[in-house]
Request: fold
Amino acid sequence: MAVGGFSKLPGGTVVVALALPHPADASHRLRVVVHAVNRQRALTRLSNLGFRGARLTGNAEPPTPDEISAVLHHPDGLVWRDYRARTSDPWHPISALDRV
Reply:
């Protein structure tokens, strides 16, 4: 089960942030942030990208203001970085994720 959380935005959409295993290396964890219409749509987007079994059962680690800003300013509405990354490390588009 993934550790993460969500924030509901004033417009009604949500930002979901999850710590997920890397699709190519399960020992490596990523922090993935998704902007979507609702939580279920966000989880479906992740599942379609290869993050099988991504579920959100609580709100233990909701997205930070930095994460919300990063995902809202990205055209795809989906960004990631290493789970242990510093706050100054850049966010990457999901297309830059090596899924081999």
